[in-house]
Design a protein that fits this description.
By secondary structure, this protein is α+β, with helices and mostly antiparallel strands. The chain has three helices and two strands. It has a two-stranded parallel ribbon with strand order 1-2. Strand 1 (19-22), helix 2 and strand 2 (42-45) form a beta-alpha-beta unit. The longest helix has 16 residues, at 53-68. The protein is flat, with a radius of gyration of 13 Å.
């Protein structure tokens, strides 16, 4: 299943998929795989795997507000 999960990704899919990756994430390391399919739609933040209130406030919410316009 994993070998085929990116087979049918369209350009529209690529334009609407963003990865928020913590620079200290030791739980999941999928940056290279994500970049190979969705680059440049990556936003890196300082932190680990779990989102903190600060990351939500300072990174996620400003991003969402920027695409609402």
């Amino acid at each position: 299943m994993e070998a085929q999960m990116f087979d049918n990704i369209t350009d529209e899919d690529k334009n609407h998929c963003w990865g928020f990756l913590g620079d200290e994430d030791t739980t999941v390391n999928c940056r290279e795989e994500f970049e190979s399919h969705f680059s440049p739609n990556i936003i890196e933040f300082h932190g680990g795997h779990r989102l903190t209130n600060a990351v939500i406030r300072d990174v996620i919410l400003p991003f969402v507000q920027s695409i609402e316009k």
